[in-house]
Amino acid sequence: MGNLIKQIIDDLAKPFLDDLKDLPLWIKWSAIVITCAATIPLALIFRARTAFSDKPRIHFIQNMDNQPKYVSQEVNALFLDGRAMRPRVEGTIARSGMVGDTHYFMGVGDGEWATTYPSFITVDSDLLLRGQGRFNIYCSPCHGAGGFGDGLIHHRANQLVETGVNGTSWVAPKNLHEDAIKAQPVGQLFNTITNGVRTMSGYGSQITTEDRWAIVLYMKALQLSQDADPSMVSNAESLPRKSASEGSSE
Ligand code: HEC
After folding, report:
1. What's the mean per-residue pLDDT of the chain?
2. Element (H, E) at 201
3. What are the helix (H) ranges across the chain?
4. CA–CA gap between residue 18 and residue 21 (Å, rounded)
5. What's this model's pTM, rounded to 2 decimal places?
6. Which domains does the chain have, with CATH numbers?
7. Closest residue to atom 22 of ligand 1, CA basis
8. I want to staple 74 with a disulfide (CB 3.0 to 4.6 A). Which of 13, 84, 121, 215 is the partner?
């Protein structure tokens, strides 16, 4: 057995080793140097994985990962006082911290829903038209252009409920001509738009304060439109009548 192994080594390795012996000296030395140098990257990687360093990592592809910026308490020579952290501009109020005029911002006066429009608001036809535009954009999809609670979203949601689309449930938007809503003070309507009510979400972050008041005005106009007294309109006699005294509906 031992002989067999020796035989195999002699047959296979001998010619190879003999060849090596014949190689020029410079090739042998180059091979030794290259082999040793090849271990250097491995050694560096091993060191990088175990040693600690206070330098940032080597980061070849930056991808905007590092950008110049000021962090807390740093010095910034741009300002006279040298502080990068700027004090608040005097009078600044956090978005959620607004108290100020509760009538204008919250629709509340003396702890009750305001029944009048705030003094910043000029109630005129411009505001009414603005309110109509905003209502048609933000409210009509659910409440319908006439405010009867029959917007397209309502119809579509009903369809989904009827066809049993998984998990659809729907609370109908209110008919804004209901007596209970007609009786609500403007401040309460303003609050409903701002903060939402039950399943309806609020629009305070999407619609400006003045526009919310404009929508309130338009809602009031919509409600009035459904049961206005002819005497409120000038030259009412010339208008088509529904009343019995005229005897016809057109
Ligand atoms: C995504 C649909 C949707 C939109 C858009 C919507 N509402 Fe509503 N609204 C509802 C629903 C639903 C209710 C009834 C909520 C409930 O009873 O849970 C409701 C209720 C109301 C009420 C009755 C509040 C009360 O006291 O009962 C008012 C007033 C109202 N909405 C005004 C508006 C106005 C004004 C807008 C536009 C700024 C608007 N809504 C936009 C769905 C909507």
Report:
1. 87
2. strand 200-201
3. 2-22, 25-50, 102-106, 125-138, 140-143, 152-162, 179-182, 186-195, 209-226
4. 5
5. 0.63
6. 2-50 (no CATH), 99-228 (1.10.760.10)
7. 174
8. 84
